[in-house]
Write a structure and sequence with these properties.
The protein is an alpha/beta fold. Helices cover 24% and strands 22% of the residues. The protein folds into two domains: 45 residues, no CATH class; 292 residues, Aldolase class I (TIM Barrel), CATH 3.20.20.70. It has nine helices and 20 strands. The radius of gyration is 20 Å and the shape is globular.
């Protein structure tokens, strides 16, 4: 299958200039003259000219506006497995982009130059939703991913892009920490096709001390996604040595996923590298990832992966009934395909949960920066 085939005949959509700011509606006025942003549990209370912790939502006049609409830190075509999503259109290319800012304060942020940006001029790539969707289709992408920084903070922009993508037959993917209030969460995921939620740890002390947020809010998002939507869900936990990698925490995390979400939700354990404000920790040993995977499988999880290291066994999708290799991966390259046209194991017939097509994509591990 040939992917990324540009069509010379495909008309380009005229690039429009993004607005300076976009009025939003998830806020309310306080008696003391401030307004409270109601997008996420942080509930920033703002006076005129002030910005929330995310930096891209600000007080302007009587309400809260989004200052990053139509602006991006850049665009790149990735393998969908890089998000990571292993059960959603395997092998296909996804157009990835982010904006600036974040509503959490992770000390270990590995995209800090984007998510911690306080410079609006870092958003040098402009693309209004209809233009972005048209270019993604022209470039041969099957989906568009809101990633690099959390799409929660550019809620309105992400939704408008998703609507434009749907008009062109493209899927929308969110990579998020799940730190969002109920009403905007419901609106946001009404327009998404897949999500990878970053479950950063399984303890409130870690979330308060290292992340600057609340675990319970994230667990509520996970339960909502699994039981009240049709959005395809996968979970990622970055394992940090000495912080969230103990046997006890991994037992508790995986047992909760099995009990609350079900054993067929894919879980990715990924390796940490020293970055941002957590440079005193070592890289995650490969053995830690394998230990975490073994604990998850022992607790009944069906699909457990390891990432940010070379581990073909831990990257491959295995049939939970007969043990056949369903999707063999080496890094982001797909080497064999053991699913039938209905997405079931060719050997034993057990369905593999996910969003699959009769044949996988062939994009491989390439990463290609593009200018729209």
């Amino acid at each position: 299958m040939e992917l990324l085939k540009q069509s010379p005949a495909a008309p380009r959509v005229e690039l429009k200039a993004p607005p300076e700011y976009l009025p939003t509606r998830y806020w309310h006025a306080l008696e003391d003259g401030r307004v409270q942003c109601d997008l996420c549990p942080r509930a920033c209370k703002l006076r005129e000219g002030q910005r929330g912790l995310c930096y891209v939502r600000a007080r302007h006049g009587a309400g809260v506006v989004l200052t990053s609409y139509g602006r991006s830190s850049g665009f790149c075509i990735d393998p969908i497995e890089k998000k990571p999503l292993h059960h959603f259109l395997p092998g296909t290319p996804v157009l990835s982009f982010g904006t600036a800012g974040c509503n959490l304060a992770c000390k270990f942020c590995q995209n800090w130059s984007i998510s911690k940006s306080r410079e609006m001029d870092s958003l040098g790539a402009a693309a209004m939703p209809e233009h972005l969707a048209a270019e993604a289709a022209r470039l041969g992408c099957r989906s568009v991913a809101f990633t690099y920084n959390d799409p929660v903070v550019f809620h309105e922009y992400a939704i408008d892009v998703a609507l434009s993508c749907r008009e062109r037959g493209l899927r929308s993917v969110a990579v998020s920490a799940g730190y969002v209030n109920a009403a905007p969460r419901e609106e946001f995921y009404r327009h998404m096709d897949a999500v990878n939620v970053d479950l950063k740890a399984f303890g409130e002390p870690f979330y308060r001390r290292v992340v600057g947020g609340s675990l319970q809010a994230v667990l509520e998002t996970l339960r909502y996604l699994r039981h009240e939507t049709d959005v395809w869900l996968e979970i990622t936990t970055l394992l940090i040595p000495g912080e969230n990698d103990s046997d006890a925490e991994l037992e508790a995390l995986t047992a909760w996923v099995v009990e609350q979400l079900g054993p067929e939700v894919p879980l990715h354990f990924t390796a940490f590298h020293p970055d941002w404000r957590m440079r005193d920790k070592p890289r995650t040993p490969h053995a830690t990832l394998r230990r975490a995977r073994a604990i998850a499988l022992r607790n009944g999880m069906c699909y457990v992966y390891v990432g940010n290291v070379h581990d073909p066994e831990g990257a491959t999708t295995w049939c939970f009934d007969c043990g056949a290799a369903l999707v063999v991966r080496d890094w982001f390259d797909l080497h064999s395909w053991g699913l039938d046209a209905a997405g079931a194991c060719r050997r034993c017939g057990r369905p593999c949960p996910g969003v699959f097509e009769a044949q996988p994509g062939a994009w491989g591990r390439r990463r290609r920066a593009v200018s729209l």
